[in-house]
Amino acid sequence: MDGSILGVNPDAQPNNLESFWMPFTWNRQFKKDPLLLTSAKDMHYTSVDGRSILDGTAGLWCCNAGHRRERIVEAVQQAVEHLDFAPTFQLGHPLPFELASRVLGMVPGDFDHMFFCNSGSEAVDSALKIALAYHRVRGDAARTRLIGRERGYHGTGFGGISVGGIVKNRMFFGPLINGVDHLPHTHDLAHNAYTRGQPHWGAHFADELERIAALHDPSTIAAVIVEPLAGSTGVLVPPKGYLKRLREICDKHGFLLIFDEVITGFGRLGAGFATEYFDVQPDIITCAKGLTNGVIPMGGVITRKGIYDAFTAWADETGSTIELFHGYTYSGHPVAAAAGLATMEVYKEERLFERANDLAPYWEDAVHSLKDTRHVIDLRNLGLIAGIELEPRPGKPTERAYEAFRRCYDKGVLIRVTGDIIALSPPLIIDKPQIDQIFETIRDVLNELD
Ligand SMILES: Cc1ncc(COP(=O)(O)O)c(C=O)c1O
Fold first, then answer.
1. pLDDT mean across residues, the chain
2. Ligand 1 site: residues with CB under 6 angstroms?
């Protein structure tokens, strides 16, 4: 073995960077001055120039147990040697059945089924389709409208960008799916800047759902989808009482409530899921990312008791053998399911959700220690998540944050920026000195920047 993978040296810069059209990337800049990661272990990446980079973002909010964890690596190796692929259409294999049971065991409340897909975007599309079809199979076919939220990120499928509210992710792609309306986002610096944890002000934003319901007639609305904490748009923490109010309005009018927990699932807030953390039960939960610790792509949709039953009742009545006309070739893929099972074991054995919860107050203090740092106009936190909002450069939005990202990387810390906001979400195995390192590095970089 020369260490190469099929003749490609995984530790060296490729000769040709042009062919790969990179997602959500400033491709021209990257290809002039690439940032290449070659390996990872626990809290650190190694860069192509051999430097150790502390991971402040769990990859892309996904490696909650840290990188290249032995138990997960071994499970994937064993799985691929045992069964590379098996269909789950009219056939099955054991692993996804077990994984679904284990995940359901982690969610409080009366959730009783889990559907598998390959990503957060597919989880969102699947959840929206299940919600629409649920009303239809119950004979309530007029409920076809979907309500999302401004600044929401629900992935990049047509369903997700339709209910999502990030303008650039929507504006190039035509009329999207119709019958969608949006709640206002809850971000308000004038009232809530520098709040520790959940803001006290802003629960009334949920009442906009009543206005939207009245506008369209509530009997036409199928579902409301929100991220319990909006992550990708730059960490918007829900005001106290907001999610409960949404739940009440959904109950009043018979709307399904979907929590998109692709980021908040699997311990990010110091509880298994945000539904537990906020003590608000949705009807459907989407998840991905931390489901397999990011090792193999996988997403899931978790449904509350009664939803699956409505499909089986309809199938019995109509003589349909199939209950849900939806699925993916790789739904419940054996290698992904093995990664998921091993990931659940690591979370449990190392009590990582409790660990995140224990570290949260230290994390909060570290976040808010940046209060008087140059360019900072807001600090937000919950669980092991932080948002650091920067004053944009006049006429040059995003430039300052992008430079902060590059400079932190040069100083050995990986942060993520979205617009002019730094978003942090480290693996849950982070320790206190590493938390200090992240915030000291950011402080130094912001003080140096114009
Ligand atoms: C809340 C939420 N939903 C959906 C997605 C999409 O997930 P994926 O990129 O795996 O399709 C993301 C990704 O960040 C997300 O944060």
1. 97
2. 119-121, 124, 153-155, 227, 231-232, 260, 262-263, 288
